Sequence to fold (731 residues):
Amino acid sequence: MRPSQQEVLRPTGPRPFDSEAAMQFDSDINPDRPVPALIGNGELVTALGLSGYHDQSEDRTPSIETQEFVIAGRRLAGPHHPLIPFGRLERRLRIDGAKPIPLERFQAIHTDAAEVRTRVLYERLLESTRTLITAHRNCLVAETRITNHSNSDVLLEWGLRYYFGARAEKRVPGVSFRVEEAGCGVAVFWETPDNLGRVGLSSDPTAWTPMGSGAALDVARSLGPGEEMVVCTVISFSDRIGYQEPLAPGELEAELSEHAAWWSGFWSQSEVVTGDALVDRFRHAALYALACQATPWSVPPSVSERHYGAGALHDEYYPFMALISGGWSALARRIPYFRLSTLPEAMRRAHGTGALYPWSSTEDGRERDPHGHWYTERFHLGQIAACAWTHWLYERSLSDLEQLYPVIRECAIYFEHHLLVRDDRGRLRTKACTDFDESPGAVEAGPFTMGAAVYALDRACEAARRLTRDRERRIVWDGLARELRQNFPVDLEERRYTLLGGKPLHSSIMGYVVPFFCDDGSEFAQNSVRLVYERAKTEHGWKPGFSEEFDGSSWMWTAGHLGMAAGVLGEADTAWDAVRRGPLSAGQFLSPNERLSAEGEPIVPWFTTGCAAWLAALHWMFARVDDTGDHLLPAVPESLESFRFRGLRLSRGVSAAVKVEEGTLIYLSLTAPCDTRFTFEVPVKFVKEVWPAGVGRIVDLEETWRIQVDLSAGENTLVEGPVRVAPTEGG
Fold:
């Protein structure tokens, strides 16, 4: 007999880690910072309330605005291009005719199976719900099991309400729909000016009925002692962009197996174990937030209308670095190729001279942000160029560079023609515009803007040289980049970078190190990073700047940005401290957020930018690729004596696996996609006593060894167990 829907809603497939607990994030983690529970597949995304469904609007539970279905790329008309409200699924419960009061609530996100499990205990009943969105199709599956644990009969009334096309209890103009019966379920047919589709609802073993604003499901029955009732609900979303047939009951088992296989593959890509429980667990939570919200186009700060409307911002730089360094190259490459696909619109906005990408871009390249001075920000063009160039650094594919060169080229042209000015002394700078810190308004020669201009011009020059393109133009780019480098605003007394005009200092002064790699070791860079580390530290991490509006707040991306910059400078202790303290600002479920307010409230829950910057900082401690080459173990502090990782990316498709115990490297392997000659640098302290004789060509650079090895396709174990010390050249 074929299993019922209820019987098959179980995690299937092997668990990717030994400890199930490491992949379970409970509501009793930071319960004083409540957030809804995230589920999603990068397109269909929602957040769940304490019922395991969307809480009723009158409950006003945290972030009630995010408790609705949205689908990335499905928007309404208007200047903000809002996401279509694909409805809310609210649960209703009565026991003996009265609304019961919960005695206990417990909720957990099981990231291995990407499902939310909710338990609500009442005086006479236990209600358990498991909810997920399938990884491979836009479909929600929810199973609720209600058990009578009392010694007497209970009259149970349980139901669901699906409300379509409304937001904040108001109908949204621009979308029309009709509701029809469809077998034992209901279909909602919807239309916007440029799209249409179908939402199908079905439940086993009961039926839905249409109602004016959506559909209703009601169950009323008497439960005897020990009896239980189980209802499994499936909601399928289909439209012109992603057509799919409604999910039939007999197909559910196979669909859940495919869902489990996708997530198992995702988690198996790489692993980092530092021995610090908070760091190791938070890596899972951060990756879960990214995977749920990595759209087919990019990785926005949040796939919700309430928070940034799923627009692609400069923030995508951080998810790109986190994903590509962690081995998720296919997800990461979406980001630069999205910018390639929307380049024509960006060039139109720049009037044909360069590319002016929107500050907050829709999937087709239109601006969706509200009116404000952030429209003058231009540093995001440098970060867009950085994603395209870094993709080349990792893949080393000239065909990829050929494809993405237009993005880098047009960003450089924009800086060249629209943003560079000379001051009254003839010094070349970027004109006044809003920089990374939006609080002071427009600033001349802002750190992020200056760094972005140098980066875009310099990398466009190098890309053109490699592709033998734009010979005359690249000479101009090279000259401009060199001149700009000489004019970074500095505080000569404090020997660090600064802002002009007496503007409050901000972590943006680290921008010359990361993300724009203009300075990877000067006294000015070191002092700038040290200033942020020491003076911006808070109880729960770091604030981004020194203006009053940041007082009392802790921003996870500041911790991540600090960790990235410190790692590049080789300040391993600072990088590790930034990584360890970053999750102190996490919310309930150990969820990432944009910031923790001075009142202790998580702002913008499940924010991808902050946790992605943190992930990149963690990964870069162990493996980093930059313009100078491949670096293994470049920023590991002495205090981290034992750790292991696998699957972290180096260039040319090579990934590394390392195990260190009590400061001694006991295992190192490099996995290559094909036979290749590969060169990397590694600190002497890890290899001098253990590198096997006769393996590779070694150049001693005093603090590091540069090692060149011939790799075969597949895994190449280079260090394993006790070995004989290898001779070196140059030292």
Observations:
- Residues 100 and 574 are 51 Å apart (CA to CA).
